[in-house]
Design brief:
Layout (H helix, E strand, L loop, with lengths): L6 H28 L4 H9 L18 H14 L1 H21 L2 H12 L5 E4 L15 E4 L5 E11 L6 E7 L9 E7 L5 E6 L10 E11 L4 E2 L5 H37 L1 E2 L2 E2 L4 H34 L4 H26 L1 H4 L5 H10 L7 H13 L3
Parallel strand pairs: 1-4
Antiparallel strand pairs: 2-3, 3-7, 4-5, 5-8, 6-7, 9-10
Helix pairs in contact: 1-3, 3-4, 3-6, 3-7, 4-5, 4-6, 6-7, 6-8, 6-10, 7-8, 8-10, 8-11
């Protein structure tokens, strides 16, 4: 692995950092308190190329690589995790899936609008009764006389669901054969039969809109089948590998923000006549925070590098993605926890961002596969046993 970043990667990182600090950070607390979707910022991010970082230029994207994506995601997440969640879904789950498995017409029609920030994308796999056991979904799609697909069912915890124009959806097309009976579809939410439910009142990432969605005799044109019929589950799992790199990047951004705030606090805050950073127990926490942050950062960059290599030369990167996601998400939770503790009462107050970092960090251990699922993925890859 080459640890040197290219000029293009550093330029993208600089663009993301500048936008994050000038436009996102100043409104993050307010949007979190209101649970308000940052639509204007998302549109501007599209214009900057941040909503389609790995999307080739011919489809309206920035034409960058996975490492550049990670560097940009970290900067956005350090300012506001909720905004980075929207960015991650658009990049990793929506655009990535269609770029890998879509037709030329699908790429031109659906990827371009999302990559340029003209529309919002979403990804619908989870259902009320099937989270980690994704193959147990109940949503059904059946062909009508015209060869189009009629979809009925319900999906839950859909990030950007209330505002998404297009959604990558997974449904059962052949019941009774488990994962082999799942297919993927591209949904236009402006068609009849689609309904978005109430926005979920979440613990963290509150400025990202999440809801349940329902399909009642929704007719999906046959040309909007994504990939081959019956290949939906493998598409979903492959897309989640990329998604896990996005969430690992988000976790690193949250962890970095909490760590940097703690460093400054340890220098400024005094107790018993001395900066609290001179106390050995505080120093021990800071040392451990630094080690976990660096480990998470390097593992996330390794996963991004592995994804880039797999795209050029073939192969897989799922294990590296799971390792990065597991380590980074648990590091974010631990670091933000220690940050609140070191800040004491002020860490618990909404006057400072520490409690928001703490709330936001928790979801990184859950979505795109829980920490428990990541451990299963890693162990099965290492042992060859299931």
């Amino acid at each position: 692995m080459d640890f040197r970043f290219t000029d293009d990667q550093l330029s993208l990182q600089s663009i993301a950092r500048d936008f994050a600090q000038k436009r996102i950070a100043p409104v993050a607390a307010e949007l979190d308190a209101k649970g308000e979707f940052p639509l204007d910022n998302i549109r501007e991010m599209g214009q900057l190329g941040l909503m389609g970082i790995e999307v080739p230029h011919e489809y309206g994207g920035a034409g960058m690589d996975p490492v550049g994506y990670v560097l940009a995601m970290i900067e956005i997440a350090a300012a506001d995790a909720a905004t980075s969640t929207i960015m991650s879904v658009n990049n990793s789950l929506f655009c990535n899936g269609i770029l890998k498995h879509g037709t030329e017409e699908q790429k031109q029609k659906y990827v371009r609008a999302i990559a340029q920030g003209e529309a919002i994308g979403a990804y619908a796999l989870t259902e009320p009764q099937s989270g980690s056991d994704a193959s147990a979904m109940h949503t059904r799609a059946s062909k009508n006389a015209d060869g189009n697909w009629v979809i009925n069912g319900k999906k839950s915890w859909i990030t950007s669901g209330p505002v998404a124009r297009y959604i990558v959806l997974f449904a059962i097309t052949t019941p009774g054969i488990g994962a082999k009976g799942v297919s993927a579809f591209i949904i236009d939410t402006q068609r009849p039969g689609f309904h978005a439910g109430k926005t979920e009142p979440k613990l963290g990432i509150r400025a990202s809109a999440t809801c349940e969605i329902e399909f009642n005799d929704y007719v999906c044109p046959k040309e909007d089948l994504l990939g081959e019929e019956g290949k939906g589950f493998s598409i979903a799992m492959g897309v989640l590998d990329a998604g896990r790199i996005g969430i690992a990047s988000q976790a690193v951004g949250i962890a970095r923000a909490a760590y940097e705030a703690t460093l400054q606090w340890s220098r400024d805050r005094k107790a018993f006549g001395h900066p609290i950073g001179t106390f050995q127990m505080t120093q021990a926490k800071i040392a451990d925070m630094k080690c976990k942050l660096d480990a998470a950062t390097l593992l996330t960059l390794r996963a991004a590098w592995a994804k880039g290599e797999a795209e050029k030369n073939g192969g897989r990167f799922g294990t590296e993605a799971s390792v990065a996601k597991l380590v980074a998400s648990e590091a974010a939770m631990w670091i933000s926890h220690q940050a609140v503790q070191i800040h004491g009462g002020m860490g618990y107050s909404k006057e400072m961002p520490l409690e928001r970092y703490f709330r936001d960090a928790k979801i990184t251990e859950i979505y795109e596969g829980t920490s428990e699922i990541q451990r299963l993925v890693i162990a099965r890859a290492e042992t060859g046993l299931r």
